[in-house]
């Protein structure tokens, strides 16, 4: 089960399968930057999620 917590106004903490990651919300644009997508993908791969 995943746990999602808002750390503050610009950060979100995810915990899935014992792996924890903190990400910044994209702002002012709503689109994620390439490095943010890369980091999110790496987090999912660490938790055992595959595309």
TrEMBL record:
Xref: InterPro entries: HicA_mRNA_interferase
A Pfam family in this protein?
HicA_toxin
What is this protein's record name? Hexulose-6-phosphate synthase
